[in-house]
Design goal:
The protein contains 9 helices and 9 strands. Strands 1, 2, 3, 4, 5, 6, 7, 8 and 9 form a 9-stranded mixed β-sheet that branches. It binds NADP nicotinamide-adenine-dinucleotide phosphate (NAP). The site of NADP nicotinamide-adenine-dinucleotide phosphate (NAP) has 25 residues, from helix 1 and helix 4.
Length: 200
């Protein structure tokens, strides 16, 4: 069965992701709080593969990119009573959000996200680069931009890694959230690293 992808959040990072999907010719739904009409100009610029939908419809997808501000994670989590069967890709960076230390109380931000998404399989990815860098086209002869992935579910890590490849990027799996995931929690070592995998 084909995986249905959705992006929730149409700001900097949601739009960058939509651009990557459009460029790769992979269908994706996109939603925000304001409804599909607000997404008309973005969708028109990216073509029919990027489909503006109401939030409820986006949440019917199998793999959902959570591209909302860290401060909105709790509210986003309440969008569904049970996230079982969903893979949620956490693109958020708590570090740049005021009061995040008080909210996290020592937890990793992706563990906090998972607590707010009961039942979901959570994968941290696509958070390490500025949105405009993430979306910038790269000549394949130069190489493929590296996307780091961390998750406690090896199967979900493999699925997201395959998608990263299909988007024309190079996946580097870092293992569990409390291991490699720590390295891609801002401001840790692998954040804001714009690495390019060169052809061998
Ligand atoms: N900006 C970057 O370069 C960058 C890079 C890496 C990671 N990130 C991370 O990515 C996340 C998003 O950042 P951003 O810069 O893209 O933010 P942004 O431009 O402010 O966009 C946020 C989007 O989230 C939507 N949203 C907010 N609460 C929501 C909810 N409860 N349900 C559904 N949609 C909701 C907003 O909807 P409306 O449009 O309707 O208001 C908006 O489209 C942040 O956690 C940030 O740390 C950002």
């Amino acid at each position: 069965m084909t995986t249905r992808h959705a992006i929730v959040g149409s700001g900097n990072i949601g739009s960058a992701l939509a651009r990557l999907f459009a460029r790769a010719g992979i269908e994706v739904s996109i939603a925000n709080t304001r409804g599909p009409a607000s997404l008309g100009p973005l969708a028109a610029s990216l073509g029919s593969g990027v489909r503006p939908v109401p939030l409820a419809e986006a949440l019917e997808s199998d793999a959902i990119f959570m591209a909302v501000p860290f401060a909105a994670v709790e509210q986003f989590g309440r969008s569904l009573p049970d996230w079982t069967g969903k893979t949620v890709v956490d693109t958020t960076n708590a570090h740049y959000s005021p009061n995040s230390a008080e909210v996290l109380r020592g937890r990793l931000s992706t563990h906090y996200a998972a607590e707010n998404l009961p039942g979901a399989t959570v994968v941290k990815a696509f958070n390490q680069l500025p949105a405009n860098t993430l979306a910038a086209e790269l000549d394949p002869e130069v190489g493929r931009r590296v996307i780091f992935i961390a998750t406690d579910s090896p199967d979900a890590g493999d699925r997201v890694a395959d998608l990263v490849g299909d988007l024309g990027l190079a996946a580097v799996q870092l293992g569990r959230i409390d291991e490699g995931g720590r390295l891609i929690q801002a401001p840790n070592a692998l954040v804001l690293r714009n690495l390019i995998e060169r052809p061998l």
